[in-house]
Amino acid sequence: MLYSYMDRRPRLGKDVFIADGAKIIGDVHIDEGASIWYNSVIRGDIASIYIGKRTNIQDLSVIHVNTNVPVIIENDVSIGHSVTLHGCTIKKGSMVGMGSTILNGAIIEEGSMVAAGSLITENKQFPPHVLIMGSPAKVVRELTPDEVNDLKTTARHYTQRAEEHRKNIPFSPTNV
């Protein structure tokens, strides 16, 4: 379901899939081919949220902002089930594992993987192509080229799955 908030309204690119139960509120731009899965909440009420091309936000995830602190999720990113993103930036080709939390000002650089259940504290920045793990999270090691490629494969897989769902499950944006 799409909701306007004050003078802010969601904008959807071509071939976006939004699953039943997902709530998208306010200043949210979802780019071409992205997918928002079941019961996720994306709330751009006090700052903007950008979700890049072919990015997937999996079931039960929550994305929110802080005053003047947007969320930017670049192209080909996978956000796992039950992830919380708050005022952070996730660079292209990365993956955030299930149940992770990433807080205000944090930056996950290109092609990195945040392990399931990790906590990224405020204003932390991590280099590209690394495995990030723990609570609080730290770099565990560099990813191999095969692992970086696997992150891209996951994003492609979700793009294909979203296309199947989009064709077979009706969606009608309302309340915009």
Number of domains: 1
What is the strand content?
Answer: 35-45%
Instruction: Write down the secondary-structure element order.
Output: EEEEEEEEEEEEEEEEEEEEH
Structural class by secondary-structure content: mainly beta
* CATH class descriptor name: Mainly Beta
Quickly give the CATH architecture.
Answer: 3 Solenoid
Using only CA atoms, what is the Rg? Answer: 15 Å
Biggest sheet: strands, sense, closure?
12 strands, parallel
Shape: globular
Give a structural overview:
With 176 residues, the chain is mostly beta strands. It has one domain: 3 Solenoid (UDP N-Acetylglucosamine Acyltransferase, domain 1). The chain contains one helix and 20 strands. Strands 1, 2, 4, 6, 8, 9, 11, 12, 14, 15, 17 and 18 form a twelve-stranded parallel beta sheet that branches. Strands 3-5-7-10-13-16-19-20 form an eight-stranded mixed beta sheet. The model has no long low-confidence stretch (mean pLDDT 95). It comes from Desulfitobacterium chlororespirans DSM 11544. Keywords: Transferase. InterPro entries: Hexapep, LbH_gamma_CA-like, Transf_Hexapept/Carb_Anhydrase, Trimer_LpxA-like_sf.
